[in-house]
């Protein structure tokens, strides 16, 4: 069973933990590490402004400032501890694992790299929509661990928006096989854990819906590699695309959570 991981540089829970985890039950043939240029971030900003408008985007920026001032250090300490604990559980990956560093997972160099390694399955942990010429390479498909229950919470920060909407039964992660749409591919499982919305940030929650379920995800990937899973039926359910967190929504969410309002 040959796998390949696509992830961003500077994301150790993906670049280190998920790499070690994949290596624990499969032949992790390679890792594509995305080193994005600053221009890529500005493209996302322009897309978000176009989608929600400049006034609402100021709400997004306000949350970014609030997060950096009041939440980031606590989340960083949690991430460091989680990284340390998971590295005690999962051994380091093989020295034979090939590494490609690239500004984009959609380059010809990336396609050549993945085709040469010929993985059965690719796990994409990235913010970039993959081209069809990339995600169709592996025989079993390219999968994402989307932080949100689909189809209700597609695109970015699904856990945050489920929490902010008090849709607590939809706080979780969806294992999706990538298709041409934005989180519209077939779903092969939903995963969650007993989150603490008062004490935990949405960032911690969206990481933990993955990390607390690695054993179950391993079993699901083995099913996929063996060709036995059947996609979940999501027909008839509402579908919505979400974006970056707003400070106004965050403050309201935390206030309601502390009051025990569900």
Order of helices and strands: EHEHHHEHEHEEHEEHHEH
Total number of domains: 1
CATH architecture: 3-Layer(aba) Sandwich
Number of helices: 10
CATH topology annotation: Rossmann fold
Quaternary structure = single chain
CATH superfamily: Formyl transferase, N-terminal domain
Q: Over all CA atoms, what is the radius of gyration?
A: 18 Å
Strand content: 15-25%
* Strand count: 9
Q: Could you list the spans in which at least 5 consecutive residues all have pLDDT below 50?
A: none
Distance between the termini: 43 Å
What do the pLDDT scores average to? 96
Name the CATH class. Answer: Alpha Beta
Query: How are the strands of the largest sheet arranged?
Result: 3-2-1-4-5-7-8
**Main β-sheet: number of strands, strand sense, barrel status?**
7 strands, mixed
Cα shape: globular
Computed structural class: alpha/beta
Helical residue percent?
40-55%
